[in-house]
Amino acid sequence: MVISPSFYPLFAALLANVTAQVLKLFIFYFRSNRWDLHQVISCGGFPSSHSSTVVALATAIGLQEGFDSALFAITCIFALIVIYDAVNVRYYAGKNIQLTKQLISDIEEMQKVNFSDPIYHEKIKDVLGHKFVEAIGGIILGLLVAFLMAPLMAV
């Protein structure tokens, strides 16, 4: 079966995403000395799979269509928006959730109040976004994947 080079951007993006997610498992192990398979599907962490995916896509498009093409320009803008969102909007949404959880806990403890409404005890993921260094790791990974795959896809 011969894979069409036109699928190169898609495969580069998907491989960068999967690689980032799998790397999170090993990086988590080296930091905590324990395995947590949930890291493979988790949001946040190093490297950013969002950043690696969109950078691999934009780079592959640039290599295939030319870095002076309109399609490359579109994917670059798309990548910048996704990375900005991961580092700013989603990161601070996660911080907001952490703060809200802490406030609820503090009020319950200080006022000896038990919030019985289930909404106060709902499990909410508080790591949604990325620190800047995690995004940089994803950007580097995306570039590596796209450049390493290019010769294999005969671009």
TrEMBL record:
Secretion signal, residue range per the UniProt entry: none
Pfam family, one: DUF212
SUPFAM superfamilies with a match to the protein in the record: Acid phosphatase/Vanadium-dependent haloperoxidase
Domain of life according to the entry: Bacteria
Transmembrane regions: 6-28, 69-87, 132-154
Entry annotated with the keyword Metal-binding: no
Alphabetical keyword list: Membrane, Transmembrane, Transmembrane helix
PANTHER family from the UniProt entry: ACID PHOSPHATASE/VANADIUM-DEPENDENT HALOPEROXIDASE-RELATED PROTEIN (PTHR31446), ACID PHOSPHATASE_VANADIUM-DEPENDENT HALOPEROXIDASE-RELATED PROTEIN (PTHR31446:SF29)
Protein name, entry field: Divergent PAP2 family protein
